[in-house]
Design goal:
Elements (H helix, E strand, L loop, with lengths): L1 E2 L2 E2 H8 L3 E5 H14 L6 E7 L6 H9 L3 E4 L2 H9 L7 E3 L6 H9 L4 E4 L2 H14 L3 E6 L28 H9 L6 E7 L9 H15 L6 E4 L17 H19 L3 E6 L3 H4 L3 E13 L2 E6 L8 H5 L5 E3 L9 E6 L8 E8 L7 E5 L19 E6 L2 E6 L4 H4 L12
Parallel strand pairs: 3-18, 4-5, 4-11, 5-6, 6-7, 7-8, 8-9, 9-10, 10-11, 13-15
Antiparallel strand pairs: 1-2, 3-12, 12-13, 12-17, 14-17, 15-16, 18-19
The structure holds ligand LLP.
Ligand LLP binds next to α10 and α11.
Length: 418
Amino acid sequence: MSISHVDLNALADKYGTPLYLYDQNAMEDKIDAYLDNFVSDRFETQVLYASKAFSCKGMIQLVKQKGMSLDVVSGGELFVAQQVGFDMKKVYFHGNNKSADEIEFALSLDVSTIVVDNYQELLLVDKLAKQLGKKIKVLFRLNIGVDAHTHKYISTALFESKFGMMPDSKAFADCMSYFSDNTNVVFDGIHCHIGSQVFEINAYKLAIDKMVDIISQWSKPLTLNIGGGFGVRYTDEDKPIDTAELCKMLIDYVHKALDDKKVKINKLLIEPGRSIVGEAGSTIYTVGFTKQIPTKSFYFVDGGMTDNIRPALYQAKYDCDVVGKQNEPKTNKVTIAGKCCESGDLIIEDVMLPDAQSGDRIVVYTTGAYGYSMSSNYNKATTPAVVFVKDGNAKVVIKRQTYQDLVANDVDDEWSKL
Ligand code: LLP
């Protein structure tokens, strides 16, 4: 069993477990599919990688090499981009509660655009831009009330969501009347993001209709950002749309909506995260003890909710195999449980697998998005190493944490003075 011709057991032996593995060829193919197909002969297009899905220097370097643009949502994500010399003219800064420090950092680096969430933020961005002598383009995040029918924690554009402003709100009207020749913020367009792990193309069509309708009130061609959220396959229940087809459908639908409203735009943006890295990533664990209770059988693995919180947080479903036994009959109904002191620390419940013993490896598929990036040190677990595999070669992009890393920020002598 291998990734890009490299044997999974050999990788686990060499780098230890739990281990995050990414098939770099698969990520590059995905990026190419977006860049080749999200194109229009009527306006500029940009594909932004939503770095919250998985960010580290190696990943952002890859995004840079492929010529994509970047969505960052914190000073930390922006710092990673700076560290790899990312072209700041391709960086968009999102978030509903950016601090003054973060905004100053973004302005000082000359990022392309700040995606403004609310009126208070607009005032702060303008004030700081004035102080620094910068002009900065802004997009407004709008809450357009489209229900993408995804999990409620990752569905972001229902009217009760904390993100953005409603198009007919006083807050948005205040923003629009704020601009003048004396402001250092420059209105460049509107943004929405209807949710994550979305499969319903109709939800995007509805969002596009609403966004084009809103943008039709300005005569100057503006930027339209329709967000990310494109679903991936975790289990057989998920049926994602092919990326090339998805891009063409979105572009065609935007063309149609613009024609219907007789509107022109300058630029169209999307910002996929999960669909770039999700399926390319997997996690390898080693089985420790196995346990049978009257109602269940467990395979205990050497990681858990500390490297993948998604099952506990969203009841997320995954597929897995016992490495090297993937063709053996799957006769046992088992639950893959982690090693944290939490009853909910279950990676997959009631999955059919062959007999596994202590020392066998389990590979959990499609963990590339929001797995490592949401990992924690709960129970003082060390975060796993991350390895990229390309054309038969493996390279570590993030080292495994050590026990020493776990106390690196602890201050030695202060506690003794208490
Ligand atoms: N743009 C904006 C403004 C976003 O808020 C997000 C994700 C994206 C783009 C990228 O969405 P994607 O293409 O990756 O679905 N932790 C959750 C997902 C949270 C998504 C947050 N925003 C999970 O593990 O499912």
